[in-house]
Amino acid sequence: MNLQILTDTIKEMLAEGKGLLAMDESTGTCTKRFAALGIPQTIEMRRKFRQWIITTPGLNESISGAILFDETIRQCTDEGIPFTDVLKKAGIVPGIKVDEGTVPMPAFPNEEITEGLDRLRNRLDEYKKLGARFAKWRAVIRIAENIPTDGCIDANVHALSRYAALCQEAGVVPVVEPEVLMDGNHSLERCFEVTEKVLKSLFLQLHIQRIALEGMILKPNMVIQGADAIKKSTVEEVAEATIQCFLESVPAAVPGVAFLSGGQSPQLATQHLNEMNRRFKNKLPWVVTFSFSRAIEYPAIEIWNGKDEHVEKAQKFLYHRAKLNSAARKGEYKIEME
Q: Which among 161, 169, 165, 175 has a CA at the least distance from the CA of 206?
């Protein structure tokens, strides 16, 4: 492992005022989104979708890294320029999603395990040659009656740690994503309890697997009530609970925490990120930034709607949403900016 390579990449990824764009939707997820909007569900339409995103003028003002899907990292623009070259020219670090999705966990009803460790060493070598400098692996933890179980948590954080070890061996920064889902009607307090347990289990396993914490980035959920919960927490409550949970669970050696939006509305995800930075930025040992997908891409994708003549307008909306999150990264976002 060459720690200097990892820390140099992380420095670029955590550049002031910038965050990560998660444009790594699987083919299945992309198909569902396209179908809902009446967009043809073809490989060419997915290429066009990713093309107008990465060629958005000024995107690099707010975005420091882009997470790609296996299909996307192999694609080129209309002019035949590899997408990774477009990103590199703009000063955006290319990354790659390397997990192969979740499957039901045997003997653990309603819980899931992430697959993809088999042959990952070889795949990382290939992705590096294609231009990737960081990778992402997502574990899914669901809150419901009697879950998550210790067995599910342990299995998922072990897989995350083995993935991180293979990445660091390859000189690729691991973005470690333990996502406690918003699905359900659980309270903010219950989310705090589960998120804290998952994070503490994760960092114990990362230690056991000899991961250099300064050579990774954490991509977690915020501490927030379930989407179906009757009681909705305030922006201030979510920010305070999240920061308290992470100060108790995440070592100071970790350079950055890049939050996922997890199904929040674009505006609410931005408000929560802003409040954390506005109130706590100078008191935290790690950078607090974003790694959003839908919270940046919508409503731009709806405006595009698969039509070439709508690309410019869609890009303007994407640019604006990214700029709002850039402001939130600095704690300078205001609702009037919407």
A: 161
- Given a contact cutoff of 8 angstroms between Cβ atoms, the answer to whether 95 and 65 are in contact is yes
Structure tokens given for 290: 């974003």
Paired tokens of 334? 């205001």
Task: Assign domain 3-329 one CATH number from 3.20.20.70, 3.40.120.10, 3.40.50.300, 3.30.1490.100.
Answer: 3.20.20.70
User: 259: closest CA among 171, 177, 152, 319?
Assistant: 177
Catalytic residue among 112, 177, 275, 297: 177
How far apart, in whole angstroms, are the C-alpha atoms of residue 197 and residue 220?
13
CB-hemisphere CA count at 13 Å for 63?
32
Q: Where are the domains of the chain?
A: 3-329
Summarize pLDDT for 248-270 with one digit per residue, the tens.
Answer: 999 999 999 999 999 899 999 99
219 is catalytic: yes
pLDDT in tens, 71-93: 999 999 999 999 999 999 999 99
What is the Cα–Cα distance from 69 to 78, expressed in whole angstroms?
A: 19
pTM of the model: 0.96
C-alpha span between 40 and 52 (Å, rounded): 16
Question: What CA–CA distance (Å, rounded) separates 169 from 164?
Answer: 9
Among 18, 97, 136, 219, which one carries the catalytic annotation? 219
Report the C-alpha gap between 179 and 259 in whole angstroms.
10
Which spans in the chain are helix H? 3-13, 27-37, 43-54, 70-73, 83-89, 120-130, 150-170, 188-208, 235-249, 266-280, 294-297, 300-304, 311-330
Q: Is 283 a catalytic residue?
A: no
Please name the helix (run of DSSP H) or strand (run of DSSP E) that holds residue 176, with its range, or none.
Answer: strand 173-180
Instruction: Let me know: does 177 contact 138? Beta carbons within 8 Å.
Output: yes
Q: How many helices (H) and strands (E) does the chain have?
A: 13, 10
